[in-house]
TrEMBL record:
The lineage of its organism: Bacteria, Pseudomonadati, Pseudomonadota, Betaproteobacteria, Burkholderiales. Pfam families: DUF4936. It comes from Duganella phyllosphaerae. This is DUF4936 domain-containing protein. It comes from the Bacteria. InterPro entries: DUF4936 (IPR032556).
Length: 95
């Protein structure tokens, strides 16, 4: 299962959020061998950016682990609104 999490951040808070997410993802890589990705839309609207975390091939219980890590990292202080978590699975080819 791949997890895609998107949210908004103010331009002024982007560097702080990036550092916190990078540290969290480094911990996931060391602890769970999950290599997270961090992306953002190229444009900024009204000084607000849209960011996305991607966790490919995450185990089934990873969403709960991620939620706990986000809280411990204090990401909410830099995020505008909610974090939206979506899960996608591979489509099995038809025979």
């Amino acid at each position: 299962m791949d997890l895609y999490i998107y949210y908004k951040v103010r331009d002024a808070d982007a560097a702080s959020l990036q550092a916190a997410v990078a540290a969290m993802q480094a911990q996931f890589a060391a602890q769970f061998a999950i290599k997270g990705e961090l992306k953002r839309r190229p444009e900024s609207n009204d000084d607000i950016q849209t960011w996305m975390e991607v966790y490919p091939a995450a185990p089934g219980n990873f969403a709960a682990t991620l939620a706990d890590a986000v809280e411990r990292a204090g990401l909410a202080q830099w995020i505008v609104g909610a974090r939206h978590v979506e899960a996608f699975m591979d489509v099995v080819p038809c025979a």
